[in-house]
Design goal:
heterodimer, A: 290 residues, mainly alpha, Helix Hairpins, Four Helix Bundle (Hemerythrin (Met), subunit A), 2 domains, 69% helix, B: mainly alpha, Cytochrome C Oxidase, Chain A
Chain lengths: 290, 532
């Protein structure tokens, strides 16, 4: 006879995994058509399928959790799963940061005529390597349009840094509220966090608008624009996902799903939010500031 | 009736109908689907290799257009790596890890099914990428599996399909890896400590860790490729301040560890097979566990030895050369551990053991040519010749594919409850080994003589070596029909297998997989067993 500690919940047949796989397939096939000049309707169908899948699958999981099927061992599985998922996300961003460092410190020097690889400078001998790279080799060679100026660290980016850091504090405050059973603290803390996430996204959208219209800084303005939008864009996408997850958890909190002992959904999203927060600090340091 | 495992419904036989497979949450069923998928893709990828070898049968253009030939080379590699060896490895992990560690199933059974069902869509996209150029989809994908820009930026729609194939496969392997690591850490039976784990479980532990680290990086790289192609960015274009070499670094930062992803599960299989048929405990269990950790660490920091010719500084190439040669230490350690396990054992030569011994010999050969290739001045001569082709086929066919064959023969009796036909198994081993060596051994010579790889036509002086290669390839290819026959025959019937299957199965570093009946019931270890 084994103790309750070792018991484990195994789900029965489920239709959600294959729906998820199909939805991903349809979405991406739609994107292939779209980037090759087609319309986006197939992607739309796929995304509706994804939304249906997320709603259905998470409903099942929440129902299972509410009916007490998740033993401590199942709980450990969820924690490890979330940990390794965030680890893989860390390496996704590591890729873009690594590219930024490589481009700034190694290949840009070569373009400017530095070292043994600097022979490429013979192509564009009036090119000066500088970061942020505003004037492109040969004016972009007709392929790329130069930006008017680079994005500075003050103003909106600094405000966004403060917004995200504050949201980390309010989230932790809410977590303490859940653990100590203070209802108002839970709700206000999490509600404020969701709001700060939304405000961040609005600021980011305005920053992009300003960059495109007033500064001429686009995806097409050479490597500075490309790395800027790739890094902040994928971060912004993660903030959007995180805000959506926080909102779902907020609704569940209002419904009274979380107890002081059992609230891993909240914790998992909190881990994710802190991860997004840390990535932003790296961004602020290396993309905006230095 | 135990209350240890709670099911939604308390039926204990397998569910019936198509739902059993489409909606599965059972690690054995999902493992079977993985293995069948890999087998089907092996025949598709193999057929492409046959066309390649038929084209290279003699100089001049025979069968296919040069562009399509390059597309075949690209997709043959991508299929073999991503749709054959990796899924087969995950299939083995699915089947065996829960049985070995005494777990009732994988930690996340539903996500497990999602990892599998992402594979058929990915395979569809991969095949589609070859077909769209015939229907106005632009330039064929003729880059080779490395997808280097600027060529990959100029390819047509097929390239976008490949990019998303890689994304889907990446999602699948990351989810599979998370599941496997979590299963290994969290689902072990009481008493099954980490240092008692069977070697196969350890090998997958490291493989999954590697995948979680490198798959997202490749995903990021191909995403940048997509943006360069369609959204006006200049990551890989010097005119915008980018650098095409950057993609090579990203690709090989993923691509080199990927080789270990393909190799490690097979090393784990050797760690199970050799002690069983030598009837001796595995020599140096701990050193193998730490050796794999060293291989993991070194594998992540030596990627640029694939790019010696791009013009890196002397200091950089020296670093990558030394790092690469250091890899021979943990790999040599593994080989010596296996040889010392064999030392004074009472060895019998069943099919899995034949494959294991063949791997030791042939994979060591790949290691030797690998050290040659690691040396920068020498590599500048060998780079992009058939010598490289011969080297990595010696590494990957014995190193991973034969390891999978050993595993299939080793565990087929456990899965099906029937012994395979030993005589046919041995014929299959000799048939593939002879075919494989005849295919790839001559390529060392044509490569050293200067024959470039990925080329549809070649100089007359290479004709003899290429004829030998092509004959060998057809022999090698045909042998797989026998493989298919043996598998189907074993599934259908045959001599009943005992629970232990092999005489020496309890001697090696086995887990609990031999304590369950052959074939195992639909649910195993519903009450956690106690390991002493």
């Amino acid at each position: 006879m084994t103790s309750n500690e070792d018991s484990y919940y195994l789900p029965d047949l489920s239709k959600w995994p294959i729906i998820a796989a199909t939805a991903i397939f349809v979405t991406l096939l739609g994107v292939v058509f779209w980037v090759n000049g087609g319309s986006l309707w197939l992607t739309g169908v796929g995304l509706i399928g994804m939304a249906y899948m997320f709603y259905g699958w998470f409903s099942v999981v929440i129902e299972e959790s509410r009916s007490g099927k998740y033993t401590p061992k199942v709980d450990r599985t969820f924690r490890m799963g979330m940990f390794w998922f965030i680890t893989s996300e860390v390496f996704f961003f590591f890729c873009f940061f690594g590219c930024l460092f490589y481009l700034r410190t190694i290949s840009l020097g070569w373009l400017g005529g530095e070292g043994a690889m600097g022979r490429s400078n013979m192509l564009w001998d009036d090119f000066t390597a500088a970061w942020p790279l505003i004037s492109l080799p040969n004016g972009g060679a007709g392929l790329y349009t130069e930006a008017k100026e680079a994005m500075g660290p003050m103003g909106l980016p600094l405000a966004n840094t403060l917004i995200l850091l504050t949201s980390g504090v309010t989230l932790t405050w809410s977590h303490h509220g859940i653990k100590s059973g203070h209802r108002a603290q839970q709700v206000w803390g999490l509600g404020l966090t969701v709001m700060l996430g939304v405000i961040f996204l609005f600021c980011q959208a305005y920053e992009y608008y300003h960059a495109y219209v007033a500064m001429g800084l686009t995806l097409n303005s050479g490597i500075y624009g490309a790395t800027f939008y790739m890094l902040t864009g994928f971060h912004g996408f993660h903030v959007a996902m995180g805000t959506l997850m926080l909102f779902v958890v907020f609704v569940r909190l209002l419904k009274g799903h979380f107890t002081a002992e059992n609230h891993f959904a909240f914790e998992g999203v909190a881990w994710y939010w802190h991860f997004v927060d840390v990535v932003w600090l790296g961004l602020y340091l290396f993309v905006y500031w230095l | 009736m135990s209350d240890a495992i709670t099911h939604e419904a308390h039926h204990h036989g397998p569910p019936t109908g198509a739902k059993r497979w489409l909606y599965s949450t059972n690690h054995k069923d999902i493992g079977t689907m993985y293995l069948i998928f890999a087998l089907i893709m092996l025949f598709i990828g193999g057929a492409m290799a046959m066309v390649i070898r038929a084209e290279l049968w003699m100089p001049g253009l025979q069968l296919v257009q040069p562009d399509f030939f390059n597309n075949l080379v690209t997709n043959h590699a991508l299929i073999m790596v991503f749709a054959v060896v990796m899924p087969a490895g995950v299939g083995l992990a699915n089947w065996m890890i829960p049985l070995m560690i005494g777990a009732p199933d994988m930690a996340m059974p539903r996500m497990n099914n999602m990892s599998f069902w992402l594979l058929p869509p990915a395979a569809c996209m991969l095949i589609l990428s070859m077909i769209v150029p015939f229907f106005g989809g632009g330039q064929t994908v003729n880059t080779g599996w490395t997808l280097y820009p600027p060529l990959s930026i100029q390819s047509g729609m097929g390239m976008d399909l490949l990019i998303f194939t890689i994304h889907i496969l990446g999602v699948s392997s990351i989810m599979g890896s998370i599941n496997i690591i979590t299963t290994i850490i969290n689902m072990r039976a009481p008493g099954m400590t980490m240092m008692k784990l069977p070697m196969f479980v350890w090998s997958w532990f490291y493989t999954a860790l590697l995948l979680i680290v490198v798959m997202p990086i490749f995903a990021g790289g191909v995403t940048m490729l997509l943006f360069d192609r369609h959204f006006g960015t200049s990551f890989f274009d010097a005119a915008g301040g980018g650098d095409p070499v950057l993609f090579q670094h990203i690709f090989w930062f993923f691509g080199h560890p990927e080789v270990y992803v393909l190799l490690l599960p097979s090393i784990g299989v050797l760690g199970m097979v050799i002690p069983t048929f030598a009837r001796k405990p595995l020599f140096g269990y701990k050193s193998l566990v730490y050796g794999m950790a060293a291989l993991y660490g070194l594998g992540l920091i030596v990627w640029a030895h694939h790019q010696y010719t791009i013009g890196m500084s002397i200091e950089t190439t020296t670093y990558f050369m030394i790092g690469t040669i250091l890899i021979s230490i943990p790999v040599g350690l593994m080989i010596f551990n296996f040889i010392f396990t064999l030392w004074r054992g009472s060895i019998t030569f069943e099919t899995p053991m034949l494959f294991a011994l063949g791997i030791i010999v042939m994979f060591s050969f790949a290691g030797t040519t690998g050290v040659m290739l690691a040396v920068v001045p020498a590599d500048l001569q060998y780079h992009d010749t058939y010598f490289v082709v011969a080297h990595f086929h010696y590494a990957l066919i014995p190193g991973s594919l034969f390891g999978l064959y050993a595993a299939v023969f080793f565990w087929l009796p456990k899965w099906t409850g029937h012994m395979y036909n030993e005589r046919l198994g041995k014929i299959f081993f000799w048939w593939t080994t002879i075919g494989f060596n005849l295919t790839f051994f001559p390529q060392h010579f044509s490569g050293l003589a200067g024959m470039p790889r990925r080329i549809v036509d070649y100089n007359m002086i290479f004709t003899e070596f290429n004829v030998m290669s092509s004959v060998g390839a057809f022999i090698f290819g045909l042998s797989h029909l026998l493989f298919l026959y043996i598998i189907i025959k074993t599934i259908k019937g045959g001599e009943k297998a005992t629970d232990e299957v092999w005489e020496g199965s309890s001697i090696g570093c086995a887990g609990l997989e031999w304590t369950v009946p052959s074939p195992p019931p639909f649910h195993t270890f519903e009450t956690a067993p106690q390991v002493k």
